[in-house]
Amino acid sequence: MNFRQLEYFLAVANAGQITAAARQLHMAQPPLSYQLKQLEAEMGVTLLNRTAGGTTLTPAGKLLRDYAQQLLDLRDRADSQVRSLGQGLAGVLSVGVISSSIGATPNAKLRTLTRHYPKVQIRLFEDNTYGLIDRLDKHLIDVAIVRTPFTAPGLTSKELTTEAMAAVVPQKYDHFQGATLRVEDLATVPLIIYRRFEHLFETTFAEKEMTPFIACTCDDARTAVQWANNRMGVAIVPQSVADEVGGLGTVVRPIRYQPWRTTLKLVWSEQITPSPLLQRFIDSY
Question: pTM to 2 decimals?
Answer without folding.
Answer: 0.64
